[in-house]
Amino acid sequence: MRWDGQRVDGDEQVLPGLSGLVRSVRSPEFDGVTFHEIRARSVLNRVPGGSLPFGWTVNPYRGCSHACTYCLAGDTEILMADGRTRQLADLTVGAEIYGTESLGRRRRYVRTRVLAHWSTVKHAYRITLADGTELVASGDHRFLTDRGWKHVTAGLIGTSPRPWLRPGSKLVGTGAPVPGPADTIGYRAGYLCGTIRGDGSAETEASDRAREFLSGFESMTELAEVPTRPVPAWQKGFLAGIFDTEGSGAATVLRIADPDELTVDTIRLALARFGFRYTVDGPGDDGMRTVRLLGGTAEHLRFFQLVDPAISRKRRIDGVAIKSTARIGVVSVEPLGLELPLFDITTGTGDFIANGMVSHNCFARNTHTYLDFDAGRDFDTQVVVKLNAPEVLAAQLRRPGWRREHVAMGTNTDPYQRAEGRYRLMPGIIRALAGSGTPFSILTKGTMLTRDLPLLTEVAKDVSVGLNVSIALLDRDLQRRLEPGTPSPQARLELVRRARAAGLPCGVLVAPVLPGLTDSAEQLDRLFAAIADAGATGATVIPLHLRPGAREWFASWLGAEHPELVPRYRELYGGGSYAGRAYRRLLSARVAPLLRRHGLAPDPGEGSDWPSGSVPGQRAQEEGAGPAAGEQMRLL
Questions:
Q1: Do the bridges between strand 34-38 and strand 382-386 make them parallel or antiparallel, or are there none, so unpaired?
Q2: Residue 72: which residues within 8 A CB-CB, separation 6 or more?
Q3: How far, rounded to the nearest angstrom, does the alpha carbon of residue 36 sit from its chain's CA centroid?
Q4: Residues 6+ apart with CB under 8 A from 552
Q5: What is the pLDDT of residues 220-265, one digit of tens each?
Q6: Neighbours of 563 (CB within 10 A)
Q7: CB 163 within 8 A of CB 149
Q8: H/E element, 374
Q9: What does pTM read for this prediction?
Q10: CB 341 within 8 A of CB 334
């Protein structure tokens, strides 16, 4: 049946975010996929905020007919507006958190909201501070220091070096948060004792908690007694309960007042056990003794996180100036040797508090949701095709203000997905870029790129051209089950070989590495040997990343295909989207010597997050225009 005859029936819903629609079509060649053909107004998109090494991208498609699914690390603790913390990967749009504003001569904590939340994959670096705080971030991420915003690694902004972190740089913040208390019988008993020995009344949040905790106990009299040798869990609960009933937190003062000497002594002993400094005032005319916590905001936050009082209002630090005596100077910035899933958010203040440090936020790139599609199955089955992309791009590049900055393709959706065989948009896009003198790079897993190698070779004489191919594994059977609709690993290796034979730089993204399935030293060694034999200019490695939605699908597949690995994956991923720190370190240690052995180790050259010679060429690197790996090639 002819493609042009496959118009979708009139009852097909056209979503309101999709403008410029010409028609929606289906074809037997792409079972279950709907192509929404549009006439776009713009295809050259600016990457806002300077958060990535490249400033522009072109996406002729939104969504991907390959039908395969695979900034700061996701376990970075973010300071919420109630004084608690939540991992960056688990934040949701609309969540209320703390950012900062410069008010008067000081930067102060203010509440803000998460406006967008997304993930990307980039080379990861570990920043270690003098107090033991660790942060995992991309080289392009920025933290606030006592001398302004600084990137994690060196690079170029235009032709000038950008500020970057070095040993001795002092970050602005309070140091890493501490783990909260476990919900144990001891903690519950301590909390109830604190509320009883207080005035017994509390706000709704505390009274609700007390009622919940009471269900496991029989005697109120016994609960009111202070143990002779209280355990730490009991003491944490006690501090939370007495603070909810008798405490106050206002600006820079945190205090607990009570007339009973035993209660005050119990507070003092608990604070001392956990290393808090304090002073005791009184008794006053009313008989009250007041325990005041010393150490400023950093200690107040540690108190809130360690003991977890219930009343949110008392935990707030709105308007408090950011200052700390914590030892938060940079000790080292080390490359992990891996590309990792990294997360970022957009906030109302332009920053947020990450592991206690003031961190710059970037921009959201979850572009499929802008069209009122979801980013899961719709990404695979609702593909938007910009029919006039070459013509519109050529017009945009002719504008007097265009400065011929580097353009990255494939950082969001694959430009050489199967549909490109029908629409043939890329030759016109390549000619438009080269004709305007614009350097560019392409990331793909589609062997359709072979068709355009003669054209790419021709234009590479005039502009910098870089290529990168995604190859996750060599096992053809496993690849068929995980990446239906994509070219085989051998076909992609042949694409690398042909690109190199054509004289083009071409690197490989080993993405993703699957724990227990493709991560052994022997498997990686064979894969790297094949990549090196194909002539690749470098390789970078990405561990498996499981976004919500993909996680459920993969869990079902793993349970059916490899049930023996289910416990290991539960241990590695827990409630998060990516493998834990210990596994990432293990994989990094395994990968690094293998990459060096096969001559594939990435060049940590300034301004580039991609393998040496892959994207872009050396000339573009010298101009500081190298792109990052961008959006992770999806597994599921």
A1: parallel
A2: 88, 135, 136, 137, 141, 342, 343, 344, 354, 359
A3: 30
A4: none
A5: 778 889 999 999 999 999 999 999 999 987 657 899 999 999 999 9
A6: 9
A7: yes
A8: none
A9: 0.51
A10: no
